[in-house]
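notes to self, project folder thing:

trying the whole complex as one job this time. last attempt i did each chain seperately and stitching them together was a nightmare. three parts in total, labels are on each line so i dont mix them up again. if this works i'll redo the older ones the same way
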Amino acid sequence: MRRRSRVVLLLAGLVALAMTAGCSVGGPAQQKLTVTGSTTILPIAEASADMYQAAHPGTRILVAGVGSSQGIESVSQGTSDIGTSSRELAPEEKKLGLVDTKIALDAIAVIVNPSNPVRALTMQQAAAIFERRITNWSQVGGHDMPIGLVNRDEASGTRDAFSKIVLKGRDFDRTAAVLPGTGQVRAVVTESPGAVGFISLGFVDRGVKAVAIDRIRPTEATVADGTYPISRVLHFFTKGQPKGLAKAYIDFVLSTPVQDAVVRDAGFLPIDKALK
Amino acid sequence: MRSLERVDKRLTNGLALGVIWLAAITTVAALGAILLYVVVNGIGSLTPAFIFTWPHGVNMEGGIWPTIQSTVYVTALAMLITTPVAVLAAVYLAEYAVQGRLVRTIRFAADSLASVPSIVMGLFGLAAFVEGAGLKFSVLAAALALSFLLLPIVMRTTEEAIRSVPRYARWGSYGLGATKWQTVSRIVLPSATPRITTGVILAAGRAAGETAVVIYTMGTMINAPLFPSDGGRTMPVHLMLLAQDGINLHAAYGTALVLVLMVLAFNIVARWVSRRNRSMQG
Amino acid sequence: MSAGSPREGQAQAPAPQDRGPAGNGGLSRISRATHLKEALLRNAFLVCACVAVAGVTLIFVFVGYQGWPIFAKLGIGEFLGGRVWYPTKGLFGILTLVVNSLLAMAGGLVLGAPLAVGTAVFLSEVASPRVREVTRPAVELLAGIPSVVYGFFGLVLLRPIIARVFGGLGFGLFTVWVILGVMIVPTIATLTEDALRSVPEGIREASYAMGATKWQTIWRVLLPAARIGIIDAVILGMGRAIGETMAVVMIAGNAPVIPDSIFKPFLTLTTVIVMDMPYASGDHRTALFGVAIVLFVISMIFVASIRVISRSRGEGD
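result (full assembly):
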């Protein structure tokens, strides 16, 4: 979901204010934590922050979605306590002394209608489809049926990742439908026999079929062992080892309730599958 | 020959009237389809828990209470700002104004204001109130932006209401030596009040259902606003975001139903006010 | 909506004899204090009336201030005439969006205007009072349904149906036309009905007396007599259609190209703002305000043309 950073800041502030209004006067000193960065991670960071604050009155967690690069920048400069990122550190960023905590996996599935006989695509074919160099399913072993492209909006983190990993930064076909939400993409592909789109693996349901990419089917196992190619790791970066409230919050995000509820609800895969 | 012409004439008449009936039936059917669809799909969501609890989690499970609160708050504040200005402006146009360039300008401005697309009004609110006046995303900024949208609507219904007050009512007042303002405030406005009220309620329905203006002036945060400086997410904005995400359609149907019911309630109350007035006069 | 403001000529301001003591006649008989109070109130009302003028001016100033730099930077021709809208590549031509908006409006009008005029004729000439009691509230309710609900309805019910019947994804001009066609019915129907009702009863009776059928009376007499009012209504319907945002954004599919079929996705002037505003910054954001200026000017042109048409009628009579 797309929300402006100011909105998020204000929301976090208001929630925190409402929660602390009663006890801030004369109570224990308020603890504050600023979490800035990736819009992809925003739903997780926000929902976890709400839950954490509800459980620990007197804490205030400000969450803002401004993009991964901004997040890394602000945590290294000390303007935020945690920088969230949906990409790895660039070589020059590795010298900044940031500590990486992996918090979830995001795999992006290419989905087609269940009636479509196409079960697998190569990475090149997938790219060609979304660039409209391939326009008919018969070109990739399916029926003679025009391909109906479904793209996400420019603000989508999923689109950004798909573009980088599959299209290698080349342009999407501009005649594709541009839809502002994962559920819409899924609904359209469920209903239209010729449609193809991409969504986070966690949102794939019986109404759509996720095709194999380079012969690897997207499953929790293939994502966890890193063989499924269209996936990425979601990171929390801290300046030095996390401590205090930052550590408590990160531990909370990594706890089973958050990993099994919030992370999965947001369409991502829990990190513990990959690490344990 | 002549009788043939008559048959032809009657046939055309019958066919054409059939087409007119068809147009009216289509219009009513369109309304029926929308209402039926929203009710059938939304009724399952419509539980006390849905209405009175807060949404939670990344996909907005749970209820929509803060969005109802936000909607009512911003609608009430917008009407509070709009009504006095619009009514007095209408009093001027109906009772005081002399036809001339000034009145023509005012009418042209009101007509223009009424046809400004709401998305433009939203960006205006963002530029003028949220950023320009430093109100941030707030109920007040949204109410101010909405009031520009509602002003011409309430002005027009009020002016019509004032003009429908019979002239002899005014003559009686003047005959007793009343001044202009005394006549307007004690005779004209009281008789026009039921029709003005109807107009104001219908405008409130419009405000409650507005999306494009509110989303850029009040923001999208889930919040139960307490002060006019607080932000919030209204029902139409909530519905839009749920529909865009497309994950929690259950909540979207429920929100659509509550929203439609609220608009229906505004219409029914407005109709009741005007009917009671008519029966009192008749 | 707007042209419904009582027109000069039809509902004249109170005639001079109604003006009461505030007019010059009674001045000598009321005290100075009362006179002062009356004058103050009069001016206070005038100020309220001028809020409308101030509103239009403020919109122009604020949206203009935010959006003008894009005109200055690209030139009016480049912005309005540029065919490629590709913000991430720094291309901000909105011609495609203008064309798409006009296409959406035109189709909505073709479907909606006959429906609306037919409904208005039904309400004013055909329906019995009892049937009218049911039909008119329906038209009013149609006007009251929020546009986001129309959009949602279009997205979850109409779009899948159209996808099934015509193939493709269901996003596109056709879907938008159907929804816009219904949405503009109340706007056009209400004003058309007003226009038909203002045709004097005697004219209908004269027509029937000459042996005309109901339909002949409607087609040859009433519709021509109410012509100006209907044209005004249709222009307002056009304004509503081209400015509609929330309903269109959910069913248009938002591809920034001129579609080669009425079942292919397209992006319009209003929907580009909704899609891009959440993340736009710099020139991109300025360009969106530039789009808002264009929409504002289009709506002003519609209102002005209603003025011109009404005035030409006034001179012709």
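what i see at first glance: Residues 7-27 of chain A have pLDDT under 50 and may be disordered.
need to look closer tmrw
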